[in-house]
Amino acid sequence: MMVVLVVTGGIGSGKSEVCRILEQIGLDCQYNADMKVKSLYTGCSGLLDKIEKGLGCCLRDEDGCFIPSILAERIFSDKEALAFVESLVFPALIEDFEEHCRKNADKEVVIFESATILEKPQFDGFGDITVLVDAPFDIRLERACRRDGADKDAVLARMSNQKLMNALSDGMTDPRIDAVIVNDGTFDELKGRTIEVVSGLLKDKDLNKNILTD
Q1: Least packed by Cβ within 10 Å: which of 14, 127, 135, 170?
Q2: CB–CB of 22/129 below 8 Å?
Q3: Which residues pair with 109 in a beta bridge?
Q4: 125 in the Ramachandran plot: left (φ > 0), alpha (ψ -120 to 50) or beta?
Q5: Would you say the C-alpha torsion 18, 23, 25, 28 has a positive or negative sign?
Q6: In the chain, alpha helices (H)
Q7: How far is CA 32 from CA 25, 50, 99, 107, in A?
Q8: Number of H helices and number of E strands within the chain?
Q9: What's the pLDDT tens digit per position in 15-41?
Q10: Rounded to two decimals, what is the model's pTM?
Q11: Do 84 and 55 contact (CB within 8 A), yes or no?
């Protein structure tokens, strides 16, 4: 039976780096939910039409091409609009993920990467194992600014919306999280911690063989 291992974390935590490490050591069946959502707007038949109708605005240019920045501006400070869009997008995302799993039915583990999964009720009970990648707030801020080439205020505005992730960084606990990987050092330290944590969690799942090939 396939195990769904959720990797989550706030902006600049290094969750994508952890997923790359997992890929390198043999866990190469991965699904990046944050990236996939962007493609669903145009790849999922009728989805954009429903969103435009519900929001009462056009989200495309004169050639009919989707303009993500218009949607982002529309929902950034409108919680009701955001909830409406998520009520359409997340079921489509889950359906797409299930199809991904069916296509990879021979894999024992699939990695589901998402920054917001713990904050969205549509995903309550989702996955078999949840790993939080975390780092102190100041480190996450500096990483995100460097990675995105964005100024500090712009990144802080995005980070302020991740209230749960910020609370977890401040020491709050969440029973849905099975383990935490602290990413506050070198790449080698992160790799060692990732292998130790994930191999231990998968061992507890009593899989048929040792998946980690490193």
Answers
A1: 170
A2: no
A3: 3
A4: left
A5: positive
A6: 15-24, 33-43, 47-55, 68-75, 79-103, 137-148, 152-160, 163-169, 187-204
A7: 18, 24, 14, 17
A8: 9, 5
A9: 999 999 999 999 999 999 999 998 999
A10: 0.89
A11: yes
